[in-house]
Every structure is written in structure tokens, then in C-alpha cells.
Write a structure and sequence with these properties.
Blueprint (H helix, E strand, L loop, with lengths): L21 H13 L3 H11 L5 H24 L14
Helix pairs in contact: 1-2, 1-3, 2-3
Length: 91
């Protein structure tokens, strides 16, 4: 008795992969910023740059600009004042 051939049309469907809702991603990025979770905010905002929505991309770019400014300010605050900075002894 011959073996039945498998029906090739009964292949399992690929798993459903939902589309990313970048408005939620941006909201999470903004909430991360508010909680001072800046690396997480930066990562999420960067993901939003892949959105096809120009408004969301603009908001993500503004958030990244705020994070860059904050990072710059924090770096400046961590420097000693010029009058306390050590002078080069070889000068």
C-alpha cells in the first residue's frame, strides 16, 4: 500500500508579528526621560526614528536633542571649576 503524500498546501502559517506602535514607544521614551532613565529613553527614542510618521520622528528627534543637552550639561557640571583645575607642571 503506498504511503500518502503530505499535502503541501497545509503548511503552518508563519507566526503573526504585530507592527510596532511607535506612538507607544515614544510615550515610553518620554516616561523614561521623566524617570531620569536616560539611556533607556535614548534607546526608545532612537527606535521611533524608524517610524513612517513624520510627527513621531520629529518628537523623537526633539527628545534626543534634550537628552544630548542634558548629557552636555551634566558633563560640564562634573568638571572642576577653572580656578581649581590643576595646572600642567611641565608648562
Amino acid at each position: 500500500m503506498p504511503m500518502p503524500q503530505p499535502d503541501l498546501e497545509l503548511q503552518p502559517e508563519p507566526p503573526f508579528l504585530p507592527q510596532t506602535d511607535f506612538s507607544i514607544t515614544l510615550a515610553l521614551a518620554e516616561e523614561s526621560e521623566a524617570l531620569e532613565l536616560w539611556p533607556e529613553a535614548r534607546e526608545l527614542a532612537t527606535e521611533v526614528l524608524d517610524s513612517s510618521d513624520a510627527i513621531l520622528r520629529t518628537k523623537a528627534q526633539a527628545l534626543l536633542a534634550r537628552l544630548n543637552a542634558l548629557e552636555h550639561t551634566m558633563a560640564q557640571e562634573s568638571l572642576p571649576p577653572p580656578e581649581l583645575a590643576q595646572k600642567d607642571p611641565t608648562a
